[in-house]
Protein 1
Amino acid sequence: MKLSWAISALSAVVCTTACMVLFGQHALWTKQSGDDEEQRLKYETFNATFQEKLFVKNTVQNQLDQQRKYLKEMEGEREKADLEQQQKAAELSDCKANKKKMEREFADTETEVANVKNNLSKMRAAWAEHIATLKRDHMQPSPICAFIKKDTVGARLCGPEAAVVAAPAAAA
Ligand SMILES: *[C@@H]1O[C@H](CO)[C@@H](O)[C@H](O)[C@H]1NC(C)=O
Ligand SMILES: *[C@@H]1O[C@H](CO)[C@@H](O)[C@H](O)[C@H]1NC(C)=O
């Protein structure tokens, strides 16, 4: 009875000790795994935040790149438009200068045409006068005809009127 009590007591002590050791180990393991879990969670949170920031940074970077590209394109377009504008302005001023030149030339041509017309009418008048003079001179035989015998080559040159006109002169 005494021995069995002693064994019981001993086994109770052993059991208790074992239980305490086991419990302690369990507690340690739980704490350890709790720490691991905590570390993992911390890391995941950090990773998630980091990934999110990376994503935002990449997105912003992409948008910035696109904006920059767009701006560059716009700048190119603007320069092209400016160049076209300048070319158009130059063409317009060329066109205006050309128009003015043509107007001047047209005015010059009109003046020249007027001059030619004026000259022509002057020449016509001069020729008319000249022809009239020639006719008058031709109608009035030269005084020499009065001294030319009839039926000669000279008398024929003096014309038929010469004989008529010359006759009184010869008689005189
Ligand atoms: C961090 O997170 C990303 C996306 O959530 C995942 O793809 C990557 O594997 C993680 N990195 C680590 C080392 O766990
Ligand atoms: C008109 O005549 C003047 C002189 O009579 C001459 O100087 C001028 O060149 C002439 N003009 C034309 C267009 O023939």
Note: Residues 112, 115-116, 119 surround 2-acetamido-2-deoxy-beta-D-glucopyranose (ligand 2) (CB under 6 Å).
Protein 2
Amino acid sequence: MRTYRFKEKYGSLINELIQDLEEQTNSKYIMGPDALCLLELLCDKMKLAPGMRVLDMGCGTGFTSIILAKEYGVTVFANDLWFSATDNYKRFLKAGVQDLVVPIQAEAHSLPYASEFFDAAISIDAYHYFGTDECYFNNHYARLVKQGGQFGIVSPALTREFTGGLPEGLVPLWEPDMYTWHSADWWRMMWQKTNLVDVTCSEDIPNGKALWRATADFELHDADTENYLTLMLMTAVKR
Ligand SMILES: C[S@@+](CC[C@H](N)C(=O)[O-])C[C@H]1O[C@@H](n2cnc3c(N)ncnc32)[C@H](O)[C@@H]1O
């Protein structure tokens, strides 16, 4: 397994923020696939530079927004639905990025941003919650990024579509919202056919299953004996 520089550089800050969060909510922070690793893999495929405006869509607790600001000097709009802007702002203050990261609580279908406002829009472990609707990209998301700007997502995915129904081993553990997981080819087609972007990369993350299983969904992965589960990464440039 490769080592991840964002984890080495920012791991202790993020652990401190997780500890605060657990104390405040009196509950364990539930982690999906490690967002720091996914962010690094995505950023390595994108070109981010100081002064750019970046949308971090579905940022959750805002850890990825903090790293984007610290690592690249970009201005980040940290947009989430479930986590409040005020709680995220407290984290941004603590991390010292309050001048670069703007906390916003907004639903994906009513985003309060001007068209072509962003140089880039990224989404870590979130886009599949709202982006599988064929109308979503062209009606809501594509307009946010300027011509020549970049899109990037990483999501739980399938190595191939379930052509014969759900694999038997997965049935007892399957949750209804997992139907939003799709293959990298499925995602490429989803965006490419809008003719609004050129998809520059759409692929399974190498060792995606192991990276995902390292922090989450252990039973599901163990039941996935046919290796359907993986993580996918897609980038595109606005035409
Ligand atoms: C699994 S969490 C990932 C959070 C963060 N990106 C990370 O990797 O730690 C998915 C996030 O997507 C956001 N989300 C889901 N549906 C959404 C919607 N319809 N509009 C905006 N955000 C949404 C949720 O608020 C949630 O924080």
Note: Residues 32, 35, 58-60, 64, 80-83, 107-108, 124-126, 129-130 surround S-adenosylmethionine (CB under 6 Å).
